[in-house]
Amino acid sequence: MKFFTGSVCLASKLRAVLSVSGLFLLAWMATCHYVQAAPSLSVTSLGIVSGNRQWQVSITPDASLFSNQPAGLGGSIAAEVGFSVTGTTFVSGTKNAASWPFDNPGNNPFTSTVTNGISLNGNTLFASLGSTFFTSATPVTLLTLVTQGTGPTTVAWGGQTLLTGTPQEYVGGRLAQGGQNFNNITGSISSTIPCDLNGDGRVDGADVGLLFNSWGNVAPGTAADKDNSGVVDGADLAAIFNNWTGDVGPTAAVPEPCALGSLVFLAAILGAARNRSRVVT
Predict the structure, then answer these.
(1) Alpha-carbon distance 231 to 170, whole Å?
(2) What is the CATH number of the domain that holds 167?
(3) Are 211 and 232 spatial neighbours (Cβ–Cβ below 8 Å)?
(4) C-alpha–C-alpha distance, residues 281 and 279, integer Å
(5) Which residues span the domain enclosing 237?
(6) What tens-digit pLDDT sequence spans the chain (281 residues)?
(7) Whole-angstrom distance, CA of residue 117 vs CA of residue 43
(8) Could you tell me if 8 and 48 lie in one domain?
(9) Do residue 102 and residue 164 come from a single domain?
(10) C-alpha to C-alpha distance for 60 and 54, rounded to whole angstroms
(11) Taking the model in full, what pTM does it have?
(12) CB atoms within 10 A of CB 165
């Protein structure tokens, strides 16, 4: 009888422990965040090329969505993405034809029509493309975008919506992989102008003047110290001319080498004069 009573007691304790453990388990599960498999899109700046800004659009497949095919383990991706730019306009959008050879029909949110491949119109660009067979989850270039000029620029993607009630309503950037559609692919990227010390959207004589005003040893984080060396010197002056836009935009002439040499010589004189002025007699 005592053994039976003890067994009942033990069972009650076990039930209590299991009940508490269950509550902890439920609480832990409630705080878990499950990450859904999905391909991704990214945009990076390629800097200024021939007076215009260039951007690289890349797609990264999700390896967990690969399947066994006659060509091996892998899969293909379809992309429908709308891009818009503020501060300027698109010059061109060129697909990576080696990896994305197919111009697919897609619901263009800017024209409210179905368009194939790439459609560009001023400050908007829509691309609907299909890929070759991918076997690794590494980023693959989808497009190279070119925007006009070198001024401050923001490129955004996704977020557009086609007319309500339209079949297969477009709800933003869309990627398809492994028989699944992944909607609402959105984001943006903004550019800054390297060496634009006064923030006026260009690199010109005014920025050179600001650099000379900071010439010599400077505190960490000084704007004119472009190479973060702790000294504003000829290397920082060269950085300004490497990013020169001029007073009238991207068509302005970059100073000739002889002019640059003269400015470097002037900078050396200025530095020497400042050093002398610091000598206490």
Answers:
(1) 53
(2) 2.60.40.680
(3) yes
(4) 6
(5) 205-277
(6) 444 345 445 555 545 544 545 544 444 444 444 456 789 999 998 887 888 989 999 999 999 999 998 889 999 999 999 999 998 999 999 999 999 999 999 888 888 888 999 999 999 999 999 999 999 999 999 999 999 988 889 999 987 765 555 555 565 689 999 999 998 889 999 887 778 887 666 788 888 999 999 999 999 888 899 888 999 999 999 988 888 877 543 334 445 544 555 555 555 555 555 555 444 44
(7) 19
(8) no
(9) yes
(10) 20
(11) 0.62
(12) 6
Contact 99, 131 (CB under 8 A): yes
Whether the Cβ atoms of residue 208 and residue 237 lie closer than 8 Å to each other: yes
Does residue 77 sit within a domain? yes
Angle of helix 257-277 versus helix 234-242 axis, rounded to 10: 150
Does some domain include residue 195? no
Q: Which two tokens stand for residue 41?
A: 């899109």
Amino acid at the residue 17: V
Query: Domain tally for the chain?
Result: 3
